[in-house]
Structure to design on (355 residues):
């Protein structure tokens, strides 16, 4: 990735000075031709006074290049001066930049490479679309990830970076307005996506969610140890972001339905961060929506957790066996070390039964 390079703020007076040197003209003679004081000309050349539209017209007459040329040089100079002013860091912001997982963000392709603290600050400000990174502490910003963040923790800085990238990635996606009733009606079809092959399932799942007003985003992992997910409103659309690879894990569908639970239960409409009670309610909703509580209780009471029984139940519920085995393992009904290769067996079972 191309490294960022900042340009120096060069006043238009530098170009005036070059013109005078080429012509062998003194500043005193030039001041007389411009009908201005020598002191003002000196300040103009040094960038200490602004080059006005009137002065630009005079420069066109005396030196030749059009007034628009001089006005453009002045505008560029003032813009760079203002950029330099905003590049200044407070001690607090500099310390925050030092804690950021900048290398990981570069590796993911989200930020340009840099070893300079000032450049890193500028790049992070542009990424987060804010003038001062210390405002990441603002509740209106951290609410985007629906939890209380500590900007001293690397994992929290990774999470808010992940959420921001999800927001940026979803910005140009065409999506219907959020429709909770439509989402609830689509739940059976969303569950059934789990029975499809991975690429097909994610493609259909994304299409179903878009139709309900939700953008599903998968982004590179910033850290192999920490996987991120975030659900938040961005204007009129709702965004759900997952780290790439999570869709292949056994608990993906539970985590997805946990996020859908927050949406359907209305937790994301509440100002402030989600509570532990909200989280517990969303997980309860996810578990009982993926496998009805009564159905699972009856299945559990039979005490038959063989591969055949799991496949049979998954076909009846039209869900992947992974959802069932994940719940059985979580409730310690089967051992976590038991690896059951059920996906191919379920496909075979469907073929043999004519499903």
């Amino acid at each position: 990735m191309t490294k960022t390079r900042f340009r120096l703020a060069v006043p238009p007076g530098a170009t005036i000075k070059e013109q005078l040197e080429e012509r062998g003209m003194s500043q005193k003679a030039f001041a007389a031709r411009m009908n201005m004081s020598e002191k003002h000309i000196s300040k103009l050349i040094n960038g200490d006074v602004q080059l006005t539209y009137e002065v630009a017209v005079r420069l066109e007459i005396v030196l030749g290049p059009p007034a628009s040329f001089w006005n453009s040089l002045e505008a560029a100079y003032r813009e760079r001066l203002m950029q330099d002013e905003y590049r200044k860091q407070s001690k607090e912001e500099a310390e925050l930049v030092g804690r950021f997982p900048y290398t990981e963000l570069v590796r993911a392709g989200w930020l340009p490479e840099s070893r300079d603290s000032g450049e890193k600050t500028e790049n992070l400000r542009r990424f987060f679309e804010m003038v001062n990174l210390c405002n990441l502490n603002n509740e209106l910003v951290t609410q985007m990830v629906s939890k209380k963040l500590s900007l001293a923790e690397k994992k929290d800085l990774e999470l808010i970076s992940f959420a921001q990238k999800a927001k940026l990635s979803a910005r140009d996606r065409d999506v219907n307005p959020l429709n909770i009733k439509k989402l609830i009606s689509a739940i059976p079809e969303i569950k059934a996506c789990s029975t499809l092959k991975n690429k097909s399932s994610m493609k259909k799942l994304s299409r179903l969610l878009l139709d309900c007003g939700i953008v599903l985003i998968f982004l590179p992992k910033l850290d192999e140890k920490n996987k991120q997910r975030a659900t938040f409103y961005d204007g009129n659309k709702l965004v759900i972001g997952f780290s790439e690879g999570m869709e292949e894990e056994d608990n993906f569908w539970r985590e997805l339905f946990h996020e859908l639970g927050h949406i359907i239960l209305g937790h994301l409409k509440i100002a402030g961060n989600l509570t532990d009670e909200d989280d517990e309610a969303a997980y309860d909703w996810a578990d009982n929506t993926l496998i009805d509580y009564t159905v699972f209780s009856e299945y559990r009471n039979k005490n038959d957790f063989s591969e055949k029984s799991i496949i049979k139940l998954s076909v009846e519920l039209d869900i992947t066996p992974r959802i069932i085995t994940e719940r059985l393992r979580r409730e310690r009904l089967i051992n976590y070390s038991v690896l059951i290769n059920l996906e191919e067996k379920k496909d075979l079972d469907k073929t043999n039964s004519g499903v």
Notes: Strands lie at 214-219, 229-234, 237-243. The chain has 18 helices and three strands. Residues 1-6, 344-355 have pLDDT under 50 and may be disordered. The radius of gyration is 30 Å.
